[in-house]
Specification:
InterPro entries: DnaJ_homolog_subfam-C_membr-28. The chain has 188 residues and is mostly helical. It has seven helices and no strands.
Amino acid sequence: MSDAMGEAARYRAHQAAGEAPEADADTPPPMTLNAQNKAEFVETAIQIAIRQGQFDDLPGAGKPLEGLGTHHDPDWWIRRKIETENLSGLGPPALMLRVEDRGLADDLDRLTNEQDVRDVVEDFNRRVIDARRQLNGGPPVVTRTRDVDAEISAWRERREAARVAETQAARADAANEPRRRRRLFRRR
Protein backbone atom coordinates (compact mmCIF):
# COMPACT_ATOMS: atom_id res chain seq x y z
CA MET A 1 0.00 0.00 0.00
CA SER A 2 1.41 3.39 -0.91
CA ASP A 3 0.88 6.83 0.55
CA ALA A 4 -1.86 8.79 -1.27
CA MET A 5 -0.19 12.16 -0.78
CA GLY A 6 3.08 10.75 -2.07
CA GLU A 7 1.33 9.46 -5.15
CA ALA A 8 -0.29 12.85 -5.68
CA ALA A 9 3.06 14.62 -5.41
CA ARG A 10 4.62 12.24 -7.87
CA TYR A 11 1.70 12.80 -10.24
CA ARG A 12 2.13 16.59 -10.00
CA ALA A 13 5.89 16.27 -10.57
CA HIS A 14 5.26 14.20 -13.69
CA GLN A 15 2.66 16.67 -14.93
CA ALA A 16 5.10 19.56 -14.42
CA ALA A 17 7.79 17.66 -16.31
CA GLY A 18 5.39 17.01 -19.18
CA GLU A 19 5.45 13.24 -18.74
CA ALA A 20 2.46 10.94 -18.63
CA PRO A 21 2.27 8.85 -15.44
CA GLU A 22 1.80 5.12 -15.74
CA ALA A 23 -1.64 3.71 -15.05
CA ASP A 24 -0.52 0.88 -12.69
CA ALA A 25 -1.58 1.86 -9.16
CA ASP A 26 0.68 -0.65 -7.37
CA THR A 27 3.90 0.52 -8.98
CA PRO A 28 4.88 4.15 -8.57
CA PRO A 29 5.67 5.81 -11.88
CA PRO A 30 9.35 6.06 -12.75
CA MET A 31 10.60 9.49 -11.93
CA THR A 32 13.70 11.19 -13.18
CA LEU A 33 14.94 14.05 -11.05
CA ASN A 34 15.56 17.24 -12.87
CA ALA A 35 15.72 20.91 -11.95
CA GLN A 36 11.93 21.34 -12.19
CA ASN A 37 10.78 18.50 -9.95
CA LYS A 38 13.70 18.06 -7.54
CA ALA A 39 12.42 20.50 -4.92
CA GLU A 40 8.94 19.01 -5.05
CA PHE A 41 10.28 15.47 -4.74
CA VAL A 42 12.40 16.41 -1.72
CA GLU A 43 9.49 18.19 -0.05
CA THR A 44 7.29 15.16 -0.69
CA ALA A 45 9.87 12.83 0.84
CA ILE A 46 10.11 15.06 3.93
CA GLN A 47 6.34 15.19 4.34
CA ILE A 48 6.08 11.40 4.01
CA ALA A 49 8.80 10.93 6.65
CA ILE A 50 7.01 13.36 8.99
CA ARG A 51 3.72 11.48 8.62
CA GLN A 52 5.44 8.15 9.20
CA GLY A 53 6.99 9.52 12.40
CA GLN A 54 10.60 9.19 11.37
CA PHE A 55 11.41 12.59 12.90
CA ASP A 56 9.71 11.85 16.23
CA ASP A 57 11.83 11.46 19.37
CA LEU A 58 15.01 12.85 17.89
CA PRO A 59 17.57 14.03 20.47
CA GLY A 60 17.13 17.72 21.16
CA ALA A 61 13.66 17.89 19.60
CA GLY A 62 11.87 21.08 20.57
CA LYS A 63 14.95 22.55 22.27
CA PRO A 64 16.98 25.52 21.05
CA LEU A 65 20.36 24.82 19.53
CA GLU A 66 23.11 25.09 22.13
CA GLY A 67 26.09 27.36 21.74
CA LEU A 68 24.64 29.75 19.21
CA GLY A 69 25.35 32.75 21.44
CA THR A 70 24.27 36.29 20.83
CA HIS A 71 26.39 37.03 17.77
CA HIS A 72 25.91 35.61 14.30
CA ASP A 73 28.55 33.04 13.36
CA PRO A 74 27.94 31.36 10.00
CA ASP A 75 30.42 28.60 10.86
CA TRP A 76 28.87 27.65 14.21
CA TRP A 77 28.14 24.11 13.08
CA ILE A 78 31.74 23.52 11.99
CA ARG A 79 33.05 24.71 15.36
CA ARG A 80 30.56 22.50 17.17
CA LYS A 81 31.53 19.45 15.08
CA ILE A 82 35.22 20.03 15.82
CA GLU A 83 34.48 20.31 19.55
CA THR A 84 32.15 17.32 19.81
CA GLU A 85 34.28 15.02 17.67
CA ASN A 86 37.52 16.30 19.25
CA LEU A 87 39.00 16.78 15.80
CA SER A 88 42.50 18.13 15.43
CA GLY A 89 44.69 18.97 12.51
CA LEU A 90 42.06 21.16 10.88
CA GLY A 91 42.74 24.77 10.11
CA PRO A 92 45.33 27.07 8.63
CA PRO A 93 48.95 26.18 9.40
CA ALA A 94 49.46 29.40 11.37
CA LEU A 95 46.73 28.47 13.86
CA MET A 96 47.72 24.82 14.06
CA LEU A 97 51.32 25.77 14.82
CA ARG A 98 50.16 28.07 17.63
CA VAL A 99 48.20 25.22 19.20
CA GLU A 100 51.13 22.85 18.82
CA ASP A 101 53.51 25.44 20.26
CA ARG A 102 51.40 25.67 23.44
CA GLY A 103 51.57 21.92 24.03
CA LEU A 104 55.08 21.22 22.75
CA ALA A 105 56.67 20.92 26.23
CA ASP A 106 54.09 18.31 27.27
CA ASP A 107 54.67 16.39 24.04
CA LEU A 108 58.42 16.46 24.61
CA ASP A 109 58.04 15.24 28.20
CA ARG A 110 56.44 12.04 26.92
CA LEU A 111 59.58 11.19 24.95
CA THR A 112 62.31 9.09 26.53
CA ASN A 113 65.22 9.62 24.14
CA GLU A 114 67.22 12.81 23.58
CA GLN A 115 67.46 12.14 19.84
CA ASP A 116 63.66 11.89 19.63
CA VAL A 117 63.36 15.28 21.36
CA ARG A 118 65.85 16.76 18.91
CA ASP A 119 63.95 15.30 15.93
CA VAL A 120 60.58 16.63 17.14
CA VAL A 121 61.91 20.17 17.74
CA GLU A 122 63.71 20.22 14.38
CA ASP A 123 60.52 19.04 12.64
CA PHE A 124 58.51 21.75 14.42
CA ASN A 125 61.03 24.42 13.34
CA ARG A 126 60.93 23.16 9.74
CA ARG A 127 57.12 23.40 9.65
CA VAL A 128 57.19 26.92 11.11
CA ILE A 129 59.62 28.04 8.42
CA ASP A 130 57.57 26.33 5.69
CA ALA A 131 54.39 28.04 6.93
CA ARG A 132 56.11 31.43 6.81
CA ARG A 133 57.03 30.84 3.18
CA GLN A 134 53.47 30.04 2.07
CA LEU A 135 51.69 32.67 0.06
CA ASN A 136 48.21 31.13 0.30
CA GLY A 137 46.90 33.85 2.57
CA GLY A 138 45.28 33.30 5.91
CA PRO A 139 46.47 34.51 9.29
CA PRO A 140 50.13 35.43 9.65
CA VAL A 141 52.55 32.96 11.20
CA VAL A 142 53.66 34.48 14.49
CA THR A 143 54.97 31.26 16.04
CA ARG A 144 58.68 31.39 16.68
CA THR A 145 61.13 28.64 16.00
CA ARG A 146 62.62 26.90 19.03
CA ASP A 147 66.28 26.61 19.97
CA VAL A 148 66.97 22.88 19.83
CA ASP A 149 69.71 22.83 22.48
CA ALA A 150 67.66 24.98 24.89
CA GLU A 151 64.68 22.68 24.47
CA ILE A 152 66.82 19.61 25.15
CA SER A 153 68.29 21.13 28.33
CA ALA A 154 64.79 22.17 29.51
CA TRP A 155 63.56 18.62 28.75
CA ARG A 156 66.42 17.18 30.85
CA GLU A 157 65.58 19.52 33.76
CA ARG A 158 61.89 18.65 33.65
CA ARG A 159 62.72 14.98 33.45
CA GLU A 160 65.09 15.16 36.43
CA ALA A 161 62.52 17.13 38.46
CA ALA A 162 59.87 14.51 37.67
CA ARG A 163 62.27 11.72 38.66
CA VAL A 164 63.04 13.44 42.00
CA ALA A 165 59.33 14.00 42.68
CA GLU A 166 58.59 10.38 41.87
CA THR A 167 61.33 9.17 44.22
CA GLN A 168 60.06 11.41 47.04
CA ALA A 169 56.51 10.19 46.52
CA ALA A 170 57.67 6.58 46.65
CA ARG A 171 59.57 7.26 49.89
CA ALA A 172 56.55 8.98 51.41
CA ASP A 173 54.34 6.04 50.48
CA ALA A 174 56.85 3.60 51.99
CA ALA A 175 57.02 5.63 55.23
CA ASN A 176 53.23 5.75 55.55
CA GLU A 177 52.77 2.05 54.90
CA PRO A 178 52.38 0.11 58.16
CA ARG A 179 55.10 -2.39 58.82
CA ARG A 180 54.07 -5.92 59.33
CA ARG A 181 56.15 -8.19 61.40
CA ARG A 182 56.02 -11.82 60.81
CA ARG A 183 56.45 -14.15 63.66
CA LEU A 184 58.72 -16.96 62.94
CA PHE A 185 57.45 -19.04 65.75
CA ARG A 186 53.96 -19.23 67.15
CA ARG A 187 53.28 -19.91 70.78
CA ARG A 188 50.67 -22.37 71.70
